[in-house]
Amino acid sequence: MLHFLKKKTSEKSTPVKIPNHIAFICDGNRRWAENHGLPPLMGHQAGLASHSNMVDWFIAHGVSTMTFFIFSTENWSRSKEEVDFLMDLFYTEMKNNLENGVKKNLRYRIVGSRERLPKKLANVCDKLEKMSAENTGGTVVFALNYGGQDEIVRAVNAAIDTGNHVDKDTFETFLDTGDLLPIDLVVRTSNEHRISNFLLWKLAYAELLFIPEHWPDLVKSEKLWQHILDEYTKRDRRFGGGKKKNYLGNKK
Q1: Domain spanning 3-188+208-234: which CATH class is it, in words?
Q2: What are φ and ψ of residue 110, in 5° steps?
Q3: 3-state secondary structure of 129
Q4: Mean pLDDT for the chain overall
């Protein structure tokens, strides 16, 4: 799905492609902290410092959904100190969104399993989704305790439990992300070039953009935000159709 905005020029207005749904793999927090001579945990805190400003900017520029990969099913293997710090940080962020984000008419979705989350964090996630469910000013998604394979396996089991045959569209309703738009663009920071089990179903035809900056640097840089939109505009999305060519070389 493509979204177009009008770009004004001195001669005429031309359409500019805008991604409806951008997903971010938020990488490099600890490396950013190390580069700045800070304790590693401070990188995570810096990664959320200007988060709301980034959301406001992209939505104001025509993006309707933004998804942030903030904690994977594999991240539980990190030290208890780091995991506990992150859980407290996420709780504070969700509470802040309850107080401020909901007032901006934003809808919030938290995807992933909540089984291992601290009870207070799971509860505030439930409350945030419920209170913002009818908001229409844009959708913000947090992938928390999320793994793409885990999501699909849970959806398969839920579909099996119905005892009915399911097609692609029906199966998608069993996914955590079933109500979300397909992803148009995935952005990964910190010069890593992989998708790391992220939203495997939804990114089937997503464009991929890998940038060298660490996540805390991206969160604060309007210049990088504009670079992301400019880069997307250059992409030629064909969804498997290819360009029309005469592959047999026959003359007509």
Answers
A1: alpha beta
A2: -120, 115
A3: helix
A4: 89
For residue 216, what pLDDT is reported? 94
Instruction: Give the integer Cα–Cα distance in Å for 213 and 83.
Output: 24
225-234: pLDDT as tens digits: 999 999 999 9
| Strand, coil or helix: 243 | coil
Q: Are 96 and 171 in contact (CB under 8 A)?
A: no
Residue among 20, 75, 123, 135 flagged as catalytic: 75
H-state helical runs in the chain: 29-35, 40-49, 51-60, 80-96, 119-132, 148-162, 168-172, 215-220, 222-234
Active site residue 236: no
Residue linked to tokens 């663009």: 185
Whether 88 sits among the annotated catalytic residues: the reply is: no
Cβ(25)–Cβ(189) below 8 Å: yes
Residues in the chain: 252
Q: Cβ(154)–Cβ(113) under 8 Å?
A: yes
Residue 38 corresponds to which tokens in the numbers above?
């800070």
Please, how many CA atoms are within 13 Å of residue 45, restricted to the half-sphere of its CB?
Answer: 9
Rg (CA), the chain: 20
